[in-house]
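--- STAGE predict ---
source: upstream dedup step, 1 unique chain passed
mode: sequence only
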Amino acid sequence: MLPFIRSDLAKFSAYKPHPGSSTAEPVPLQLDRLDTNESPYDLPPELKEKLAWEYQQIIETNRYPDGGHETLKNAIALYVNESANVFSSFFTAANISVGNGSDELIRSILIASCVGGEGSVLVANPTFSMYGILAQTLGIPVVTVGRNEANFEIDLQAADKAIEQTQNPPIRVIFVVHPNSPTANALTAAELAWLRNLSDRILVVIDEAYFEFSKDTLASELPQRPNWIIMRTFSKAFRLAAHRVGYCLAQPELIAILEKVRLPYNLPSVSIAAALIALQNRQLLLNSIPLQLVERAKLIEALSQYPTLQVAESAANFVYLRLKPNALNQEDDYLINLTQKLRTAGTLVRHISGGLRITVGTPEENLRTLSRLQTALTNL
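--- STAGE serialize ---
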């Protein structure tokens, strides 16, 4: 380590942006990229043309972007109220903070709550790794608990014990995903009851990145939950992963704090324009979701036919599978080999937490993947 760099940074690895790539090179375009939970569909050409027109005719590249995001926040509020089936003024711009992807929002939440020895973070693994990674980069302790092997529900007894026993600093933030990644399960009634009964001294962050696929949101509870934040993203259903736009919902007092710690001009003008165009044309973009849900069901049904595979139900745009208990020795090596064989054949999937996560692709991608998987399993 360089003598002026924090010594603890040697103890963990950076997030690997393209898990399917074994090198620093970009993932080849000809591969079926089912490893990062992106939408398989690009923006329609007419919306790309609108965005290009905005860039050519409206955006002044010599000017800073809109640093307050008021127009975008108002558009987000309209969409959230509509999709949560609440009245039209339930959420306003005052309830919303916009980030450079959800990652920036996570970092802002951590800065506002835990840095300087103020608090620790609790996560239930397996889950989205950036909660822990970003906490570590800020020198924040991360406390982990497990999940039920059968349904991936958080080990609530272990979580209660961790909250009780963790001091100096105490647990200040809990991150949950609804539905979880990589396991695709929605929060259960028991988990929701637990979250509702937590001390209001603990900040509860509920990541609804896959809301448009699950259709299950906790947004309507926020007025009664001053210690809750709900995060969302434009990277999945809205097809804007390249533009890095995330947002969160909370009571105005909490949003005002997050606005204090976020970076100024954190979203480029073209990303703001892309998010606005996506919201204005949301019906067109979200029309693909029923097809993706049908394809998800087909994937689960086909994968469930293999006697060695255990396929989880999914409320997201991906499927998670593991080997059945005692199906094979050296299960992890088997899955590593299976992942590599699929890559060689042309499909990228994510080997993670003792299983495989497969994004729901186009019908053609899914058919190719199932065919390649059958060949790979036969050869293995």
